[in-house]
Every structure is written in structure tokens, then in C-alpha cells.
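If you are new to this repository, start here. Below is one unmodified record pulled from the training split, so you can see the exact layout before writing a loader.
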Amino acid sequence: MSEELLDKLERIANALERLSPTPPSADALSHQDAFVWQGSTGTLFPVHHVAGVDLSLLQGVERQGKLVLDNTRHFAAGRPANNVMLWGARGMGKSSLVKASHAQINKEHPHALVLIEIQRDDLSTLPRLLTMLRSQKRRCIVFCDDLSFESQDADYKSLKSVLDGGIMGRPENVLFYATSNRRHLMPREMMENENGSAINPQEAVEEKVSLSDRFGLWIGMHGCNQETYLAMIDGYAKDRRLPIEPQELHRRALQWAMGRGGRSGRVAAQFIDDLTAELT
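And here is the target side for that same chain:
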């Protein structure tokens, strides 16, 4: 093969590498604190900035926040800790609480924890991810947002085994955090159908709800009242130093909530974003 042809092939290879670089593997855990797991390729992609809010801005969920933060702090320190399920009303800060707790721990102890997000559709590849993490020194929280299952899903059975039932067990350096709008991760009609068609209805229901039992901390987050909603508004407005009188701020915030058909942390954040764009 001529030297000219070799040179051309090398340049083509270099160009292809630039267009499609080799995704980072578990070795990258030493360089970043947050990743997204790509189940189709079995790789970890770094997240340089995690979208979230400071823990102090999450109003109305102080009790839940303390439970999650204490559990996360114990885990980061190498002490026993539990898998966490946050369930409840939409927009009340379930995923924000997970991300804020991770950020708070790393603020107290830099690079103490890695946060790895896994999509619901990639749960079947979770064993592969845990095998990769088992050999790592850093402590990792695997996080699945909006976790739920439908009637034809079989992934919940494999997830049960991975979390607490397999012979290898969950790696000591890994916890699983999840959020869901459903208390038992499955639609009510799914459980009722099992209850009505099974030979032993109680056993069928137990099979369905046993997944949630794998989470040692099972924390409910419910809708907020007007007082809590306005406390959220005040916290966001103070953090952004918005030039508006409290009375006018509250009036407009309540009007915004009426237009959205409810009050929640998400509605409060959306109002503040709109108001910030107007006033700054």
C-alpha cells in the first residue's frame, strides 16, 4: 500500500473520529459528577451543568427534603442508605429534590457523589449499567424520573431483581432514586384487572406492588395550598431580586395559577420565568 494512500486513510479516520467521537465510558466518572446513561450503546455521556434549583428554594416540602438529604448524606459518607421513591402530585418538585440533594452534598463534599440519569425505556439495560458501576470507587445515584409501568410491561420484574433480589445484589456504591406520579408505579385499573382475574387475587396484587417495597424510603409529595404557593413565589422573587411590590407579586401570581388550573412548584417557577423576562 502506497504512502499516499495510507495518508489519505489516516485523514479519513481522523475526520470520522471528530464527527463521531468515542463516547465516554465508566472511566469518565473520575472527571464529572453527572451523566446520562445511553442504554442503546452502553455508554455514559457527561452532563456539565445539571438543570435544577437550589434546595432552599423548594418550599412546602421541607420534611420530604430532609428525608432525602439525610439519606443521600449517609450514602455519600459510606453509611447504610435506602433506595428512594418520590411519588405524588405533578410539579411539586420530586425530580428537583433529587437533583438539589445531589448538588448540596457535592457542595459540602466536592465530587462525593455521581448522579446518573436513566430513561424509563432503558431500564432493561440497568443490569449492564450496574455491572459497569460495580467496579468503580465513586458512589453513584442512578436516577429515573417519571417511572411507571403499563399492563404489558415486564421491566418491573427485572427492576425488582436488580434493586434487591438478585444473587449479586445491588452494588454497595449504588443507590436507585426514582420519581412517579403513581403511588405503586402502575395504573389502578391494571391492579384491579389482576385482582379480578387471578386465581388468588391477593397474590396478584402483592406481585404488582412488591416493586415499590424495594424502595426503603417511599415519600409522598402532595399538592400545595395557597400559602405554600405564595411562599414559593416569594422565594423565587427574592432569589432573582425582582423589582416588584409583594402585594402586586401575589396578585399576579394567583392570577397566573388560576389560568393554569392549579398551584404547584412548577407553576410558580413558570410564573417567575415570565415575570423575570418582563421586569429585567
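Two things worth knowing about this chain: The chain has a mean pLDDT of 83. The chain is about 45% helix and 15% strand.
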